[in-house]
Amino acid sequence: MTFDQLEAFVQVARARSFSRAGVVLGLAQPTMSERIAGLEGELHGPLFVRHGHVVDLTEAGRALLPYAERTLALRAEGAEAAQRARTGGLGRLALGANPSCSQYLAPRLIGEFWREHAGVAIHLRSASTPVLMEALLDGTIQLALGSHPQMHPRAEILWTYADEMLLLAAPNHPLARRGSCHRADLVGQTFLATLAGPTHQALERLLPDPESAIALEATAGEVLTHLVGAGAGLTVLPRLAVWEELARGQLAAIRVEDFDLGPYEVALARWPGHDLAPAAAAFAAHARAVRVPRLLDGPMAAG
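-> structure tokens emitted (303 positions)
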């Protein structure tokens, strides 16, 4: 039983698909199948049962899963402890951030953190908040920065921040020139959205017929900002994801007079039961002390 086999097993169990799990791990499907087959051979029985294009855990697979997840977490914690013992200091920080936070918020938090802890090595992973929750559970990251509503209910929240959601357009868009609109003005407009998350949810509430109004769905907000800035349509994003585009005049915010887009709630989380390394504990304390609007409005700190 190897770590590679356990990692493949855990990812297939979560994705319910060999191919989707292979995408997460960067492995071809034959390699994934080979690793699972090796593990099943050692345990003398199947771990998955196929139902068309998806797979489910067998009883043996369900019994193995929590032990496999804990084993992977212990491997990550052990590697971190060994590195701290070798190098001294606070050690290394493994941080995950969702796309909205990784564009501006995470880099600025890191820059400010380095002012006090310049020797800390940081690995930053960008992924959706649900994927980051899996990485927290595995122990492959120590902290996750992302959408609070999408955090796992068992995740321990260390810090929160509420940002505003904005209706955005190119500065020369007719609604942008007016500066405000009503929901009725949005009928017939073209919208761009992320595949899931707060942006998609806000548009589903804002638009009477989101299915026909949303012309493009993307996995990353950066795609939306480029297209909207070029005049391809409208979108809704948190202010922290477009802070500099607004400051440079590349995007314009439109006030919706008769609808509240609601807040975008950001959280920094850890997984309970995992030891929080000194670097991660110091970063969490730093985040709690920072005023986010001042941080985003100021220049990027140098590392």
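Residues 194 and 219 are 6 Å apart (CA to CA).
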